[in-house]
Amino acid sequence: MYAEIVVNHPSRAVDRLFDYEIPKDLEDKIVVGSRVIVPFSKWNTGKEGFVLRIKQESEIGDKVKSIIRLLTEVPAFKPDMAELILYMHNRYLAPLIDIVNAIVPSGAARQIRMVTLAVSQEEAEEFLGKSRSEIQKRMISVLMDTERIATADLVKFSGGNYQALNALLKKGIVQFFEIGIERSIYDSKSELIKPNKPTEQQQKAISEINCAIDDSLPHTILLHGVTGSGKTEVFLQAIKHSVNRGRSALVLVPEISLTPQMVSRFVSRFGKRIAILHSGLSVGEKYDQWARIMNNEADIVIGARSAIFAPLSNIGIIIVDEEHSDTYKSEMSPRYHAREVAIERARKHGAVTLLASATPSVESYTYALLGKYQLLEMNKRYNESSMPEIDIVDMREELESGNKSMFSKSLYNAIKENITRKEQTILFMNRRGFSTFVSCRKCGFVPQCPNCNISLTYHSYDNSLKCHYCGHKQPNYAVCPACESKYIRYFGGGTQRVEEELKNLFPDATTIRLDADATTRKNSHKEILDTFVKDKIDIMIGTQMVSKGLDFSNVTLVGVMSADTMLHINDFRSAERTFDILEQVSGRAGRGDKSGRAIIQTYNPDNYAISLVKSHDYRSFYKRTISERNAMWYPPYSEMICIRFSGDDNDITRRSAFLFRDEFGDINKISEKIALLGPIPSGIPRIKNKYRWQILIKCDNADTFNDRLIGALNKVKSDDLLGDVLIQIDKNPINVY
Ligand code: ADP
Ligand code: ZN
Ligand code: ZN
Question: In this structure, what are the phi and psi dihedrals at residue 414, rounded to the nearest 5 degrees?
Answer without folding.
Answer: -65, -40
